[in-house]
Design a protein that fits this description.
Shape: globular
Number of helices: 6
CATH superfamily of the largest domain: Gcn5-related N-acetyltransferase (GNAT)
Radius of gyration: 17 Å
Strand content: 25-35%
CATH architecture of the largest domain: 3-Layer(aba) Sandwich
Order of helices and strands: HHEEEHEEEHEEEHEHE
Largest sheet: 8 strands, mixed
Strand order of the largest sheet: 4-11-5-10-9-8-7-6
Structural class: alpha+beta
CATH class of the largest domain: Alpha Beta
Number of domains: 2
């Protein structure tokens, strides 16, 4: 059992990522422009009520919880997406030669938003780049693959937003980005981990090949005050 990995959003918002969110002693959430994630010290009715009072009427909130059975009342449940949490247990990988990896910055944000909108690796908003550590591959001055880091705590760094332009899929670009992110996180002294939808067999196979193992099931609970439709990136 690892309490940090069992409740990664909460511990990230109480440590390395604290400057990207707000909240109180029981509930915390990232700024909406950074990520839709919220964490609770304990997933209990009183804390859900506190979270309800903190979010705006149309704000979508995503919780990571290792079980499908979770009652977030008074929120409405939009969807529950089954997934896995995977932790790196392999040997430190060697660098992969070939296309140059570029550290992505604010000047690349428009292309990052366009690629994530097309490839749908998960929620990616205007300030998600503030998590830092994003790398990309360009061809003909066009961003074709990218990935970065997201939730960070003492000891663990989550890898996220691994994606490739559909026209460049199957050529090893995502694997190269992921490989370098793993190297960077290990060099920082942390253990890489990530989350993946249970139905994304292709990604799971890649992650296992590179040394990640499934630690636990993790459900992505998407909740909202209202019942209006939401973006497909949550599904």
């Amino acid at each position: 059992m690892n309490v940090i990995l069992d409740n990664p959003i909460w511990f990230a918002l109480n440590s390395v990522n604290a400057h990207l969110g707000s909240g109180n002693d029981n509930v915390k959430l990232f700024d909406a422009a950074v990520a839709p994630f919220a964490g609770l010290s304990v997933y209990a009715p009183g804390n859900f009520k506190q979270l309800f009072d903190l979010v705006s009427p149309d704000q979508v909130v995503v919780l990571f919880y290792p079980e499908a059975d979770l009652d977030p009342a008074p929120f409405n449940v939009v969807v529950k997406v089954p997934g896995y949490q995977m932790v790196f247990e392999g040997k430190e990988p060697e660098a992969i030669s070939g296309e140059e990896l570029v550290r992505l910055t604010e000047k690349d944000l428009e292309e990052m938003l366009a690629l994530t909108k097309l490839a749908q690796p998960g929620p990616f908003a205007g300030r998600t780049i503030d998590f830092g550590g994003y790398l990309g591959i360009f061809q003909d001055q066009k961003l074709i693959a990218m990935g970065g880091q997201r939730l960070q705590t003492q000891g663990f760094t989550e890898i996220s937003a691994i994606c490739t332009h559909p026209d460049s899929a199957g050529k090893g670009f995502a694997g190269k980005v992921l490989n370098e992110l793993v190297r960077n996180i290990i060099a920082s002294g942390n253990v890489p981990y990530l989350h993946v939808r249970a139905d994304n067999a292709r990604a799971i196979k890649l992650y296992q090949y590179l040394g990640f193992v499934i630690r636990t099931e993790m459900y992505f609970h998407v909740i909202k005050k209202g019942i209006a439709p939401i973006n497909n990136s949550y599904r």
